[in-house]
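Hey, resending since the last one bounced:
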Amino acid sequence: MKLCLPRRPGLDVVAPAGVGRWWREEAAVVGQVDAVSRLDPLPIAIQAAIALVGVLAVLVASSPATVRDVRGAICVPRTGREHLARSRARPGRPAPGTGVQRPCPPAGPRPRVEVIRSDAGRPGAMGAVNFTDQDAAGRARAASGPLTRAVLAALPAPSIFNTQPWRWRVYDDQAELWADRSRQLATVDPDGRMLTLSCGIALHHAVTALAAAGQTAGIDRLPDPDRPDLLARLWITGRHRPEPADVRRYQAMLIRRTDRRPFPDLPVSAAGMDALCEAAEQGGAHLHVLHPDQVVELTVAAGRAAEAELADPEYRAELATWTHRPATAGDGIPPATTAPPARRPVPLREFTPDGPAPDTDGDRSARYALLFTDVDTPTTWLTAGEALSAVLLAAVAADLSVSPMSDVVEVPASRHLLSGILAGIGHPLIALRIGVAEPTRGLPPVPRRPAESVIEIEGGERR
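The structure tokens again:
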């Protein structure tokens, strides 16, 4: 049996109304990642045959399996030509576009984790994952199920310093989101606020993928007080017909990028800002758009944060660690993606503190906002991450770009200044720089961790 992660035929990439003037420039990227699918109409007899093949595959799953290393985890051929190409492949040689066959595992007990190489770092790829020592049939069900597909789709979620501080465990009936404390920033984020918020973004991305696939999700946040690193349990409560907005949000998730370049000198529409505020409210948090006089206070807070952090050798060391990662790490912030030097109303974090001085002006038309919650607890940090994800996706539909600014909340004194902007009625979690979006085609790729280092397929029902 070939055991891999299937990807079904995908949506035709079109430009839905209101998604953005630069949608078609990114359509090629969207077309490569199509975990949300609609089934091409097939005769009933063919559908029945396909279903029978799937049942037989599960029945024989306990026999030694040939694990195929797939490019993009595409296990179901998309055209009749690919069917023919696979049928002509000689034994021992992979069919075109499907990777390299690996030898069958030896008989007997399987190891705790079986790692299969992933191409998840390549645009459009959805890689293989870890398999634990559950029975083979259980692993096959979980690996091909909607929860695994949703978790894979959530891997590109943005995070503080691109640390990707999460782990997923997938069972037949639910997926667990865990904080990866080995990736917590000890100096920048000692309390784990940004780590938890980052995991909240990943959680919302997974729910977005499920909704676009017609799956209704249930979420239990921080379900076990004795295991605080278990941030959420996610399961499917039913099916629904996907709304166009569900699909648009998913497609926005695939093309969204964090853009630190200065925004063009174009005004941000009031309707766009209203859409972001509504998305934050629906996500369980609040978005306060700053007035011009409050932008000055944000500038003071950003300056104090930069001064305090750059004077700390431990901060400089941590910053250097995450901006000079090995090419194989799949994480961190490459220098090419950092903010270019420019004079801005609110300065951004200096990822290269010893770089050249700015000689241009930028962000003259940018707007600024604070994402905040009513209380300051790990649960609200997670919820704030979900709300931030909703804001980021709503921005794509409004032709806007949102660049999170976490440095202004990392220093207690600066965070206190931001609380003053809110008049003490809420707890600021992150500041946002907002401007009119430009095409992201010229941006360098963002590294991503391979799926096998993030996802474990447990199989079976969670006990």
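The first strand starts at residue 68 and ends at 69.

Sorry for the duplicate.
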